[in-house]
Amino acid sequence: MHLKSLTLRGFKSFADRSVLSLEPGITAVVGPNGSGKSNISDAVLWVLGERNARNLRGQAMEDVIFSGSSGRKPVSLAEVELVLDNSDGTLPIDYREVSIARRLYRSGESEYLVNGSVARRMDVLDILHDTGLGTGTHSIISQGALDSILQSRPEDRRSLIEEAAGVLKHKQRKERSARK
Ligand code: ATP
Ligand code: MG
């Protein structure tokens, strides 16, 4: 599985529809301070279900909606779509390409879409479960968070490695069967 594209519209500094095409391998985003690099990783976190505005470097969820700039009016809708290549079947969904989208209106209304159909946040989390991608995992490490990982206790660091290796699923299954 790999990220294929990220489309932003009205999300933070991305007022206009912007499409980032991604290839397998490493993609680096470079640009001056304040040009929107971190807003891109915020968009990935957000579309995957982040609910805490602070983890998106804001005060309230509404802060993800483009709030205007000199010569540009605020917009009323933020929208992000992430397309994942699932040709290796990593995601438990019978599509070679999986599109996950999220919308938030200034009125507070919001929705998720999976391959164009309205879905619940839970559906998105289920699709990503134990793939290493998603909120609460370490697939996105924010500026400053690296220190806390380096300073963490060995037990905590072990769970990080388990998460990366995708063994949590098996561990949880083992614990469940031991309880029976
Ligand atoms: P650095 O190199 O300093 O880390 P960066 O490229 O990561 O910078 P970001 O933090 O992604 O920069 O972008 C910050 C910019 O995004 C600021 O100019 C800020 O005003 C703008 N911004 C954030 N939220 C919104 C919003 N809701 N509407 C409009 N602009 C926004
Ligand atoms: Mg940044």
In CATH, the topology of the largest domain is named Rossmann fold
Tell me the distance between the termini. 34 Å
CATH classification class of the largest domain: Alpha Beta
Would you report the number of β strands?
A: 6
Radius of gyration: 18 Å
Can you name the CATH architecture of the largest domain?
3-Layer(aba) Sandwich
What is the strand content? 15-25%
Structural class: alpha+beta
Give me the oligomer status: single chain
Ligand inventory: adenosine-5'-triphosphate, magnesium ion
Low-confidence stretches: none
Biggest sheet statistics: 6 strands, antiparallel
> What is the CATH homology-level superfamily of the largest domain?
P-loop containing nucleotide triphosphate hydrolases
Determine the number of helices (DSSP H or I, runs of at least 4 residues).
5
What sequence of helices (H) and strands (E) makes up the elements?
EEHEEEEHHHH
Shape: globular
Task: Indicate how many domains the architecture comprises.
Answer: 2
The main sheet orders its strands as: 2-1-3-4-5-6
Give the rounded overall mean pLDDT: 92
Helix content: 25-40%
Family: Belongs to the SMC family.
Function: Required for chromosome condensation and partitioning.
Subcellular location: Cytoplasm
Protein name: Chromosome partition protein Smc
